[in-house]
Amino acid sequence: xSIHIGASAGDIAECVLMPxxxxxxxxxxxxxxxxxxxxNATRGMLGFTGTWQGHPVTIQGSGMGMPSLSIYANELIRxxxxxxxxxxxxxxxxxxxxxxxxxxxxxxxxxxxxxxSTMLREVNFAPSADFTLLRAAVDAAxxxxxxxxxxxxxxxDTFYDERPDLTEQMTRHGILAVEMExxxxxxxxxxxxxxxxxVCTVSDHLQTGEALPPEAREKSFADMVxxxxxxxxxx
Length: 235
Description:
Elements: E1 15-18, H1 22-32, E2 34-40, E3 47-52, E4 55-60, H2 66-80, E5 84-93, E6 103-110, H3 117-120, H4 131-144, E7 148-155, H5 164-172, E8 177-179, H6 182-192, E9 195-205, H7 214-232
Parallel strand pairs: 1-4, 1-5, 5-9, 6-7, 7-8
Antiparallel strand pairs: 2-3, 3-4, 5-8, 6-9
Helix pairs in contact: 2-6, 4-7
């Protein structure tokens, strides 16, 4: 047990999928895992452990934003021995060629600041994905025929951003989409010697104003979860 995760020793698998929404963690666990049991409900941030094709998997909500994600990623690795952490979540497209329902597999994640910035001080650390997970996710997406983009995310500190100039520069520099967690996940994993990846579904578009209706999200999010699981346990 840690401060924010009420699991016992052995309750957390080495592979952890991390959606922001705890109810999405519940849905993904009930949809994809067998031999399922709930291992965390502290502060309402649900976590579940089960098996996928015989492999132990934990699906643990991370909350919204990098400060919340940082708490769970640190504790999962440090206190429970997690070795592979894959963010599964939604993102907002920033490029015209990226469409709703597309999947983004993030090589890197830019940010203006992260919870780890005070530790790194003057260093502009470049958070990047684990290449083995990245390559396996790209292969899994190709096998499924999912429209996928591999490149950079922007992890924002704010959801209701009022910096159109910053959005313009992110778009100009080829950032595929914006979300709120990946940069800190990659940094924490690097610090502790774990492997990390972010696989995100495009749920809305900053240029066109389009957004997926709630009923259309489940199918596209299912593709994302399947890609993440296959990447974690390649054959």
